[in-house]
Amino acid sequence: MNAPIQFHFDFISPYGYFASLRIEDLAARHGRAVDWRAMLLGVSVLKVMGLKPLMDTPLKGAYTGRDVLRHAREHGLLMKRQPTDPVMNPLPCARAFAWVKQHQPEHAAALAHAIYGAYWGEGQDLSTPESLRKLALPDGLSAEAVADAAAGDEAAALLRAMVEASIKAGVFGSPTVVVDGEPFWGVDKLDQVERWLSRGGW
Amino acid sequence: MNAPIQFHFDFISPYGYFASLRIEDLAARHGRAVDWRAMLLGVSVLKVMGLKPLMDTPLKGAYTGRDVLRHAREHGLLMKRQPTDPVMNPLPCARAFAWVKQHQPEHAAALAHAIYGAYWGEGQDLSTPESLRKLALPDGLSAEAVADAAAGDEAAALLRAMVEASIKAGVFGSPTVVVDGEPFWGVDKLDQVERWLSRGGW
Questions:
Q1: Which CATH class is domain B5-199?
Q2: Could you report the predicted ipTM of this complex, rounded to two decimals?
Q3: CB distance from A52 to chain B under 8 Å?
């Protein structure tokens, strides 16, 4: 069995949401599992790279809003939240994910899907640990437990370690897929990832 | 006959080079001509957007170098210049292009291909008007005339107008393809451009 492919994502990233809907089928077609990894654009983009937020960047912000909606329309994806809406604080969701990945790793992907679907698909507010109590979750996951964890120190420490590891691996954007050490940034790269997996690189 | 699709590019952009090799076939498949337009990343990225040069951006610079070489290998493209090599002053080439587009529009695409091939493919230095005298050009174009034009005020004014128009249209990256007012940024977007042309948008 080949190593899982890494899927690095930030919940505030609509492109991460789009890719999250395809990554498992893509991996499965090549006999791979997916290792889901939360990262924080606020750390990579703002602190390490010294850039401003994407949507606040002249020209690029306007283009990105248009591109996101175009992508959603092409693929028929539910997206009640607009790319121009204010960005939530991603820490409660990302901490909850890091905690579930540690304690219920078999449910980590399901939690990521639930959060992405609620935030981007349904336009729900998930910016506080409290708001996670209303999150609809599949069997095996408790919204109460997830919300409690999101407010705790352990989840914060787990997320910090995950984010530090992603920076150390050179990951800066959402989504980034890493196949056997080879990084691919952007939902537009998924077709190339598929070719890379088919050919075993080039 | 539908309107030409616009192809905005900077000669210092390897992704612009890659896309330049595909854009005419792509357009032709949909009964479109290509309107070639030089832009300057030094204006859009550095001045208007307030960002640093791509290759000087932490994490993103290293990734980009790797991604460029991976793209060239996948498509079997000649590229003697490395993405990490110092960036040339693009003004002489871009001014020469603007001048030829004005005075010999039927040869504008050929000049763009010649410059891209010499700079990225062969790794030649094209950073001064003088260096353009050695450029191999197809019939109908004179390297002497092109080099003289690149050093003149008219070419500078023509390029300035072209760059101002691209900024005004919201173009910030190379390559950007604009189809009937709809912008697509990046060589990774060419497949989506093709689908947009096939379906007439969505």
A1: alpha beta
A2: 0.94
A3: yes
